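Dear colleagues,

As part of the handover before I leave the project, I'm documenting each prediction I ran so the next person doesn't have to rerun anything. This entry is a single chain, and its sequence is reproduced below.
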Amino acid sequence: MLEYDFEQSVGFWLTVATQTYHRALQNELAPQGITFRQSQVLGWLMREKDISQVDLAARMMIEAPTLAGVLDRMERDGMIIRRNCTADRRRKLVGLTAKAVPMWEKIVDCLERTRKRAVDGLTDQERALLQRLLCRVQDNLLPYVNETVDTKRVH
């Protein structure tokens, strides 16, 4: 069997750290009655305003049918609206409702607690270095990312 040195794998450590961060965030969100996926939807909509379901699924890195179920529940609960795109009737746009604002405020509280725990013990300089290094990794990989949606540098 081909051996692989996981200890030297940037991808392995990024993946493990991301998964651990998501689990910690989910633990914060659950008592609020919010799922991780709902927080992702609201986060992207807060950042992008209206976005197509296809683009939203790509940004969340999930399949469109999985996203459709999340959006169905959120639409039923009055947090989002879906409407046809005026430029392309085949596209569905997703937007926020006023009812989403209180949920977003809860999510921000959970995000801030999780972020604080994640960087606990790091100095301001170490946090800044971590951000610069992660940005450099992202910049190094962006030319090799082939997505159907616009790829944006996220910092």
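The CA atoms of residues 15 and 21 lie 10 Å apart. DSSP finds six helices and three strands in the chain.

All the best with the project,
I.
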